[in-house]
Amino acid sequence: MKRKTEIDKLEREEHLEREEWIELLTGWDEEDRAYAGERAREISHRYFGNRIYVRGLIEFTSYCRNDCYYCGLRRSNTKACRYRLPEAEILSCCEAGYGLGFRTFVLQGGEDSGYTEDRMIALIRRIKALWPDCALTLSVGEWEEEAYRQFYEAGADRYLLRHETADSVHYEVLHPSDMSLAHRIDCLQKLKAIGYQTGCGFMVGAPGQTGGTLAKDMSFIEELHPHMAGIGPFIPHRDTPFGKNQRGSYKLTLFLLSLLRIMEKNILLPATTALGTICDRGREEGVLAGANVIMPNLSPVAVREKYAIYENKLCTGEEAAEHMDRLQNSMRNIGYEITFERGDWKERQREKGKERTRQWNINMISCRR
User: I need a labelling partner for 320 at 20 to 30 A (CA). Which of 158, 167, 212, 274 fits?
Assistant: First the structure.
């Protein structure tokens, strides 16, 4: 075990210096990964018990105005199968999910000009009117601040906007010149200021990624202190400029999940579909590494393969909402139970405060002895 000192410091102080991050992320071994996983599981149990939150994912449009070099939905990909779900079909997905027990819906799509600000507002209001006890997460990219505010006031609760990389030079490797890291970060800051439970995230093994860029990612997450973080391995899509690149490291992804749990102890941390795509037990291994969210797919079966942001994305089987019994069994086999609770961050903040108070009391008793 080479990096136990850094892992222990991260758990204790929830902070590492840039040089320490680089040493940890470039010099770890399997014993370090196992130790980090052990600490992450203990922390996850402390804050969440053995509960794994499930969210109903609805991939409602595959149109996108952006031309990100790594994404199969990029506007330049003329081979992409495009679709745009009408409101009635989206509501049907929500209705089916609600019947299965889901109490959080995630609307995810490309930055589709067909879904205007007004159309999004109407959709959000309709969903919240029909299912007022449900949380609604949006993952629809970059908008102006006023649009974010309107979505929030219409009823959206959470917003996931992956920053992809916190290094501006690396960002330019992954994106065309009409996109910028500064604007992406500005969007994330505005989302938090408006009141959203906000999520960021990045790809592990993205082209051009180094230990230094990963160090910046982890420091950025520490600074932003998001409520959610979505990370998963980079998987290439053949119809993109990076189609021949190697996919990201499965083990490094698991290690980073553990480190995120150790640093941001009460964060909502998904075991992503990408992790399950590159390994049959990827979702289970993600949970054992510290993840506590799984997002089964509520999208119509006919369009799941069309939402191809990377190659061979899982779209049937246990990751689909129709197979909740399989999901429950797979979680029970590793000692966890799925829950449909919203798992709101504010509720968990109160729990975190109680835990810190309890730990402080324990420390004071020890000092008196």
Answer: 158
